[in-house]
Write a structure and sequence with these properties.
By secondary structure, the chain is α+β, with helices and mostly antiparallel strands. It contains four helices and two strands. It folds into two domains: 62 residues, Pemi-like Protein 1, Chain: D (Ribbon), CATH 2.10.260; 40 residues, no CATH class. The chain has a two-stranded antiparallel ribbon. The radius of gyration is 21 Å and the shape is elongated. 0% of the residues are buried.
């Protein structure tokens, strides 16, 4: 998990200038719809500042606490991803007796 104070030594990625934004009277910069559409579902940003003053915004997604356990358990996460892949391929079975199905697991 990333923490504040984290230092990123290597960022192997190319950056492209896409817009120029001015700082408002409250020292804020709005990313705007154009940028947010590219980032899709980001709802937070981790901010890195380089020695030369460059700023990197790393898009983040907040996860509800009651769902975070899934991402902390690699085995469960792998099983969920496998199940989603199988479902996309149409490899599914209809369960008629849900209670019996859960007991059989």
């Amino acid at each position: 998990m990333n923490t504040l104070g984290e230092v990123v030594n290597i960022i192997d990625e190319q950056f492209k200038a896409v817009d120029v934004k001015n700082v408002d009277s409250k020292n804020r910069i709005s990313l705007g719809e154009k940028i947010l559409k590219v980032l899709k579902k980001a709802d937070a940003f981790k901010i890195f500042i380089g020695r030369d003053g460059d700023i990197l915004l790393r898009p983040m997604v907040n996860i509800p606490m009651k769902e975070a356990w899934v991402y902390k358990n690699p085995k469960v996460l792998k099983q969920i991803r496998q199940g989603l892949t199988e479902a996309k391929k149409g490899n599914v079975k209809e369960v008629k007796e849900l209670d019996a199905f859960f007991e059989s697991l």
